Amino acid sequence: MNTIFDGIIFDVDGTIWDSTPVVAKAWNAALKDFGYGDHTVTADRLKGLFGLPMSDIIKDILPYAALKEREAFLPVCSKYEFEALENEGGIVYEGLKDTLSELVGEGIPLFIVSNCQSGYIELVYRKTGFGIYFKDQLCPGDTGRLKAANIGLICENHALKSPVYVGDTVMDMNACREAGVPFIHAAYGFGRAEGADMVIDSPVELLKRVKGE
């Protein structure tokens, strides 16, 4: 494969899988058990929030709660989410497994950078079996840095000269602009991103875009 990129960095939610139906149920249970039963979230609402750091998502859901209360709720929310996803998993986008396999087979290194909590990417690997395709991953839960900085770290650690990032939201695109990395918009995901360098409507289309077709 004569690719124009020497590495592809992926987002998770809205790019690799859709976990929002499972996460919404888990978070609503956590809100109820933690005494916030008058607050609820839906899968559609989460699609507009995923991509933000977890602390910012909690702030959006509980805007009037004190900082200490939100900080106390965050690990509870994460615990409920992880337990639910370990049981059910998310919905993997059609064609993604074959796409990842072919890219790796052609010698293109793959990575993940997500604004998730520590352990989430590893959970995705366990539920999908996709860990065999990815060379490395970073998230704020592991590094204390947000997406743009972590994209830069992946590029630095693996000496990438012409990488590309695949994500589904304008937040992903903005992080890429900050990191100086081209952005491919996964339009099959959660959000819009006007002005992306490339657009794909399915994971399978990524193969053509990577080859410059």
Can you give a write-up of this model?
With 213 residues, the chain is an alpha/beta fold. The chain folds into two domains: 7-18 and 91-210, Rossmann fold, CATH 3.40.50.1000; 20-88. Helix content is 48%, strand content 14%. The protein contains ten helices and eight strands. It has helices at 20-33, 43-49, 54-61, 67-88, 96-105, 120-128, 140-143, 147-157, 170-179, 203-210; strands at 7-10, 17-18, 91-92, 110-113, 134-138, 163-167, 183-186, 198-200. It has a six-stranded parallel beta sheet, sandwiched between helices. Strand 6 (163-167), helix 9 (170-179) and strand 7 (183-186) form a beta-alpha-beta unit. The radius of gyration is 17 Å and the shape is globular. The mean pLDDT is 94.
The overall pLDDT, averaged over residues, is 94
User: What overall geometry do the principal axes of the alpha carbons give?
Assistant: globular
Output the number of helix runs.
10
CATH class of the largest domain: Alpha Beta
Head-to-tail CA distance between termini: 11 Å
Strand order of the largest sheet: 5-4-1-6-7-8
| Alpha-beta content class | alpha/beta
The run of helices and strands is EEHHHHEHEHEHHEHEEH
**Number of separate domains:** 2
Largest sheet: 6 strands, parallel
CATH topology of the largest domain: Rossmann fold
Approximately what portion of the residues adopt beta-strand conformation? 5-15%
Q: Looking at this structure, what is the CATH superfamily of the largest domain?
A: HAD superfamily/HAD-like
Rg, alpha carbons: 17 Å
Instruction: Give unreliable regions as ranges.
Output: none
